[in-house]
């Protein structure tokens, strides 16, 4: 699956510890049109580089992606 251009759910819903980013907070490297400003650059965090869009995570809409990622984030906090 290809990333939905302008979705940004993976840059909002989860926490990203290497960027000191809390869950639900917009990444400081996310542009106003929801594009990663570090994409393809060496300083992009490994966790971001390793994330691959998948239908089971991203669903068919941006809202589905946000809902799934929020749910997954909450599950990891409960453990």
From TrEMBL:
Instruction: Quote the InterPro entries the UniProt record gives.
Output: UPF0153_domain (IPR052572)
Name assigned to this protein = UPF0153 protein
Native source organism of the sequence: Agarivorans gilvus
């Amino acid at each position: 699956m290809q990333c939905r251009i302008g979705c940004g759910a993976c840059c909002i819903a989860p926490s990203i510890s290497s960027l000191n980013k809390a869950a639900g907070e917009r990444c400081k490297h996310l542009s106003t049109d929801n594009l990663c400003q570090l994409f393809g650059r060496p300083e992009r965090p490994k966790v971001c580089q390793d994330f691959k869009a998948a239908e089971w995570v991203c669903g068919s809409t941006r809202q589905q992606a946000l809902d799934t990622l929020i749910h997954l984030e909450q599950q990891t906090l409960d453990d």
